[in-house]
Amino acid sequence: MNLLKQKMIQQLLEDWKLDKNRNKSIVHVHTTDEKKAKYASFPENMHLSIKKALVKKGVEKLYVHQRQAFDSAMSGKSYTTITPTASGKSLCYHLPVLQSILDDPTSRAIYLFPTKALAQDQKSDLEQLIENSEEEILSYTYDGDTEPGIRQKVRKSGHIVLTNPDMLHSGILPHHTKWVSLFENLKFIVIDEIHTYKGVFGSHVAHVIRRLKRICAFYGSNPQFICTSATIKNPKELAETLTNESHELIDENGAPAGKKHFVFYNPPIVHPVFNVRRSAILEVRDIAQELYVNGIQTIVFAKSRVRVEMLVTYLQALVSKKINDQSIRGYRGGYLPSERRSIEKGLRDGVIRTVVSTNALELGVDIGQLQACIMTGYPGNIASVWQQAGRAGRRQDEALIIYVAQSTALDQYVVNHPSYFLGQSPEEVRIHPDNMIILMDHLKCAAFELPFTAVDSYAEFSVQELLEFLESEGVLLKTVDKWHWMSESFPASNISLRSASQENVVIIDMSVPTKTRVIGEMDQYSAMTLLHEEAIYLHQGTQFQVETLDWEEKKAFVREVDVDYFTDANIAIELKVLSEDKAGDAKIGTLQYGDIIVLAQPTIFKKIKFDTHDNIGSGKIHLPPVELHTSSTWFCFDKPGDWTDTLLSDAMTGVAYALHAFIPLFIHCDAKDIHVVPQVKSIAGEKPTFYIYDSYPGGIGLSERMFDLWNELVPKVSEQVESCPCSSGCPACIGAQDATLNLKIEVIKLLHYLQVKENVL
Amino acid sequence: MSYEKKLMQMKGLVKKEVAKEQPTKEIKEDKLPFYTESWEAAGLKLIKNEHGFLFVKETFYDEQHIHGNVALHKLQKAITFMQQNYPEHPLTITPESAFCFYDTETTGLKGAGVLIFLNGVLKKVDNGFLLTQHVLADPGQEAAFLFATDFWRVSQTMLTYNGKSFDLPQLESRWTMNRKTIPPLKQHRQIDLMHSSKRVWKGDMERFKLKQVEEEKLAFVRKNDIPGHLAPIIYFDALKHGNPTNLMKILTHNEWDILSLAALYILTVELLSDKEVVESATTYTNIGKWFQDLKTTETSVDWFRFVVDHFENEEVSLAYYFLGIHLKRNKLVDESLHAFRESLKEIIGKYRVEVYIELAKLFEHQQKDFDAALEMTQECIEYVDSASNMLSKAKEMAVKKQLQKRKERIIRKRNISWETAQLNKKRVLLP
To answer: Which residues form the domain of B212?
Structure first.
């Protein structure tokens, strides 16, 4: 069976080389060879029952990284391991934790997973190990699903508590007096998949960890940290920022890997003048169909929920004649847990042959071994590429990974520069615990949990002035030597770790009036553009039309429909400058950095036909604006004399498009983390201005780096636009344009004008 | 200016520092708060102990004090009655330990940041009762405030209203927060009078807020009471501005709560001890049910008999049901049949379903009267169909399935018994 599979992947590649059409689209194939395992013996001092459990599991020796982890733990160090998917990374923490509990049964450990689902998944793995060891070790998940009846038991006697940062934040830390035996005896804090703690979420989690450490100190414990991460550039730095503790890095991977074929695929040009390529989605559909027909179990990654649903709809046409066929499924956040569990099981059992997923399946959810992986477009960062690619050929099998480029500038750059993610080191993951709003949020929570003294600092921050501010806001009260919480409110419940807006919109299906049911949920920001009234919402390939969006109550009522279009919404942006912190003068203008307010409001939506992607109608969206306070770098310049406002406006839009497309390449962030907005007459200075701002409240340091990189950015962008093969602008450089305007030349002119090398900013 | 704007302007204030050990010296200054005099003038007394200071108010009630319509002097009699008659009952205050009535006021509902600012304790003393109310002088004086109670010295029985899930967990939490300073909290036995009230008046009262119990059962009506949910704001305000007027109203609120606890205890025990008709049949049936759940069967049967002897019509139907169950357990088939039949006359709701099923069982298994068993089952099916929303959907499905099975089985049995009868007839005829 195995032989047959491998042959099929090879055969397929051979066939594609001979197929003229396909071969034209294959830009590059990169094959990595099989890698042999590197082993180490079991540590001598490891308890016999743990050895026994490992042997029962079929593990006769450890991989080198697992052994190194065990030894570091025993010497009392905090450490971070970077290991790809399926390299036995969970043993890097299970072993020392179990060892510590067998050494001293009062020992406790907390495992933190990014989601509830992952914690529940990892629990079965851990339970099996404990069962095989035949020791009395109690492990529990503690989350919103935990039965009230056993909560008491978890608090008092759970050796290992598996939870998530949100639960720690609002369910455990504010109630620490109920967890005395845990906090008194906490030996290890395990944080799995730390690369997922980035941006604003990661910054929140960094504070949750700081609060956790503060509580531990109160109860006299000083736990060690064990972190695991996917391959990123700065795992040690990230772990240290996250935990405010120095870490040892374990990056030698002893696990074996199978042969992998990495195919760079660029859809054919269908309109040479406009440099328009065939839609990546349609191309992915065709490739996925081919793999499906050949019986190759495949995971398809798409970047958005809408795309996942579109692809599922397309692919399910393959099996539409079979009754109740479950072999092609979608998977993404917003599905109910039971639905997700059944999909995961279907993948492991092999019943599901093709799954289309958002990045939800990048993480350590156990879905077993798949043979092929298709990425619809560049996932936005290299770490994700490797996580997604790791889904194929997990267990030493030959694997096929196909990257299908979209027509965006970033994708076109990547597909034509395979070395960008084959050769280059993956990006940094940045968090910014200094973000004022996030810091203040957690300072409140910390003050609620344990009063600060008049000389206390909070982690690395000296906070006495901030505490004074909170007193002036009426939240704290200062007595002789301490700051006391003096408010009726429970601060953790007003602070969501996941996004600026805390409450999700619940999606309710009312197709059958007597049987209304909840089919999913969505964050507010996405809901503005995906769940407005008349939007077509796709769920497991079924189309629903949003009938009513109750914004106050955060409920969207949908009804099943069957139409041949999807919807796409526009957002209007208004900007106000709050403060100017840094400035640099150039001959033609000023570059500034500071804080701004962004008002975002969805305006209209378009109905777009499937397959042809024609615009077939539009409508207005009536929703209140969402406010964002963030940091920004903006360049305000004198209007070049001979330009009309209209022309300038069009050219600036093109420049903004190009800037936005290339910024992620310079500072390694997701395109959605940063925005570029052009204004012909800015509200502040009446002059043409480009604003570059962070997508998160308070900013996470991205636009601040653009202040330093402005002089490098503009020439590079200019170069890219000039070298683009299109004649008058295309999605790969300045966005699609009307050919008669010949805007590309104007954009290049403006980019040259903006180059201010001679001036020191 | 919005909160976010203010924060943005404070960016410059955040300084990072290299982690250095802070000298955690205990600043022990006995600087009295600025409002000491005005609080004292309002009737609070400042007291000091080795951990600082707190305010206290003591109120004495003589033996003759009456709260609502309950005379407090009857407390001793009530305690003795329970000790002598029901030593194992959850309402019994054990003779070997001290007891108190206890109620707190707090600055919020949940979490480690919520303070208790008022501990009210009522104790029996010579010639009367003494209410001691400790007031947290300021949040920095918590250790002194907790240390002033005797909860760390003496293990005792604490009588509360909803204390099991609120006051006591709060107290434990506050103790944990001060664990470095004060001796550990002793284990205390709890009697939660909200639980006993629910046992006794379930179905008789709709809500079990202490206020409802006071008005309906103790004939005590509060005048100018401050609602408990305002307590946090009032306490914060008293700290900030020093004015104790509203704070003293909270003390009164707490005083009423605690006096009601004592009165409620007396009233509840009286209901358990005197078989007199002062309450509804529901209440007495509840009391019987309570004793039944506590496995004191004889007492519970006495109560059910009391109900059927002193009330009539629909009031007695539930007691008859419980009697029927009891008689059936004691294999008194005819008597239990009678009781269930009496019950069936008026009983409604899910208990009616139970009565039908019990009757069907007795007819089927004991009397072998399959026609009667079938009739009961059929009527039950029709009743379940007619009364929608009486049972949860899942329960309704289960019951219907069970009834259908019973019906089929009875029909089968009836047919077999009919055939056997025929056969026997033949056999008799044969020779």
So the answer is: 36-273
